[in-house]
Amino acid sequence: MKKRYWNEPQMGFRERIYFIEIARGLGITFGVFFRNMWKWLTFRKGALTAYYPEEVRSDYSPNNRGRHVLTLRPNGDVQCVSCNMCATACPAYCIEIISAADFGDPQHPKSPKVFEIDYSRCIFCGFCVEACPEDAIRMVKDVPDLPSFDRSNMSGKIDLLKLWRPTSDPRKPYPAPPVTTKAPP
Amino acid sequence: MSDLAVHGFFMLFAISFLMGLATVFTWVERKQSAITSDRIGANRCYVRIPFTNIKFIAWGLFHGVADGGKLLLKENFTPRTYDRFCYNLAPWLAGVPVLLVFAVIPFGGALIVGERSYVMQIAPLDAGVLFVLAISGIGVLSTMLAGWSSNNKFSLMGAARAASQMISYEVAMGLALISMVVTYGTLDLNAMVQWQSQLLGGLVPAWGIFIQPVAFILFLTASIAENKRIPFDLPECESELVAGYFTEYTAMKMGMFMLSEFIEIVVISALLVTVFLGGYNLPYFNDSGFAFPGGVNWALPPWAVVVLQVGTFSIKTFLVGCFQIQVRWTLPRFRYDQLMSFGWKFLLPLAAINLVVSVCIRLLTL
Fold it and tell me: Which of A89, A143, B76, B208 falls 20 to 30 Å from B288 in CA-CA distance?
């Protein structure tokens, strides 16, 4: 006995003799082919995909945040106090901080000697920005040329991250007003 | 001596035509599928002039060459099989028959060298159609040997499917060809082409596709099935059987199977062109030049006629091959029972009816 399926194909006579429907399908694909080919032949681009490394797409979302920056103090040092909270919050474990101590500056005795973000693992979730108590790391609207043929080139080093020079953000005047220091006891 | 040189040249031309066009078809398959689906396609391979930074990408044409080089240089991995002889024989059985079929296909009209006139055909056989059917039947042996000797379940499944599919579709293909033989009254492929150079009612060229459209569709369908391409690619369907009967083949042995598939596209296109699309003839074209229906004649020198005939044949073959590739990128794959019922319950009766009708018409008009 032939097994009956619950979703038996509902084919009429026209579908059953195949050739008309095949001709229709060929018409559709040939139509797309000739439309795209006509675009290529008239020196336009007939494809939706991009030549990736040569051609960066222009329609990134306005909400896209593609690069981390480390904010700076007026004297040019990074604002980071190397508390490792961003590295703790990071779900991809891609932030590596090595601290350096400078006891000559009692307000900011800790600072990062090495601050690396491994962009081969970063998922751009922004948790590091939310975790930061010092507003030392932010994400900006940028599409950096991150991909690389070598894995060792994929980490954002501290000098790459110190590129932020805001001048017009009213909530954060720059350079920052001088910090009133208390005399050490 | 002149005979030897001319026939050697024909063979050289045929081999380079098949190999070159097969390599071009690997590129066409990539690019045409890409353009059909709004993509760009393979475009990374280039040839650089030494010591300069000038690169020739040529729309990715070098990808076929790079593939060939890669396949030649890869490790020749052999599975632990107990039938080493059949395992090594199978790629040759796939590659050689498809090359042999082209021997009887005329790729041009008469070539006059000195006092002698040569038909541009490697082997001017009287029984060309029988030769085609006989040699293309060997192809099924290669798939069966490959699948059996690979010592692998996927290969065996693919070989079983390939054997049943190719044998059942060969019947419909043979019947379609026989109805064309009945129409033309000859088995010689060159005589078929010359028959097609006449005009129907002084206006329409007497091509096989206009006389026997049903046989054309039957032959096209059955020959795509013979070539094991989508929608009949059950023997090697990637989603179920990895690569079917050549799963266990690596390097150039696998390349032989792939190349024989692409050569078979060329050969099938050449057969379709020869039997159904007027061969090397253009409409209103004969051995002395163009003769348009309004009584306008345009004489051409013999060398121009030969060049035009070979060019016409090549371009027609290329376009039919592109059509086959478009079919491959349009249709989904048949299920196995659908494939069998389509072959035996639809194509075969249709081919038989077509044969009977064409025999009746031939008897009435004889």
Answer: B208
ipTM: 0.81
Half-sphere exposure of A17 (CA within 13 A, CB side): 9
Q: Is A51 within 8 Å of chain B by CB?
A: yes
**Are A36 and B35 an interchain contact pair (Cβ–Cβ within 8 Å)?**
yes
The Cα-based distances of B214 to A107, B211, B291, B350 in angstroms read: 91, 9, 29, 8
Q: Report chain B residues whose CB lies below 8 A from the CB of A19.
A: 217
- Residue A49 to residue B43, Cβ atoms within 8 A: no
Domain spans of chain A? 13-54, 67-161
**pLDDT for the residue numbered B240:** 78
Q: Which of B28, B29, B43, B330 to mutate to test the interface with A (most CBs of A within 10 A)?
A: B330
Token digits of residue B269: 């296109």
- pLDDT surpasses 60 at A172: no
| Token reading at A5 | 């399926």
Count of structural domains, chain B: 1
**Contact by Cβ (8 Å): B176, B271:** no
Phi, psi angles (nearest 5°) of residue A91? -75, -15
The answer to whether the Cβ–Cβ distance between B38 and A22 falls below 8 Å is no
Name which of A17, A29, A47 is nearest B326 (Cβ-Cβ): A29
Q: Is the CB of B330 less than 8 angstroms away from the CB of A32?
A: no
What gap in Å lies between CA A90 and CA A84, rounded to an integer?
10
Q: How many CB atoms lie within 10 A of CB B129?
A: 24
DSSP B149: H
DSSP code for B201: T
Could you say which residues from 215 to 254 on chain B have a Cβ atom under 8 Å away from some Cβ of chain A? 217
**What are the strands, taking DSSP E only, across A13-158?**
67-70, 95-101, 110-118, 137-140, 155-156
CA closest to A51 among chain B residues: B40
Q: Single out the residue of B272, B269, B257 nearest to residue B145, CA to CA.
A: B257
B338 touches chain A (CB under 8 A): no
Say if CB B195 and CB B186 are below 8 A apart: yes
Range of the domain at B21: 2-365
Which of B 4-63 lie inside 8 A of A, CB atoms? 32, 34-40, 43
* Higher pLDDT among residues B81 and B62, named by residue: B62
Which of A17, A25, A30 lies at the smallest CB-CB distance from B331?
A: A25
Phi and psi torsions of B358, nearest 5°: -70, -30
Query: Tens digits of per-residue pLDDT, B17-38?
Result: 888 888 889 889 888 998 898 8
CB contact (8 A) between residue A19 and residue B217: yes
pLDDT digits (tens, 9 = 90+) for B220-234: 888 888 888 878 888
Q: Test A26 with B330 for CB contact under 8 angstroms.
A: yes
Torsion region of B58: left, alpha or beta (phi above 0 gives left; psi -120 to 50 gives alpha): left
Closest to A67 in 3D by CA, of A146, A14, A121: A146
Instruction: Give me the CATH topology for the region A67-161.
Output: Alpha-Beta Plaits (3.30.70)
Rounded to whole angstroms, the Cα distance separating A38 from A42 reads: 6
What predicted TM-score, i.e. pTM, was given to this entire model? Answer: 0.77
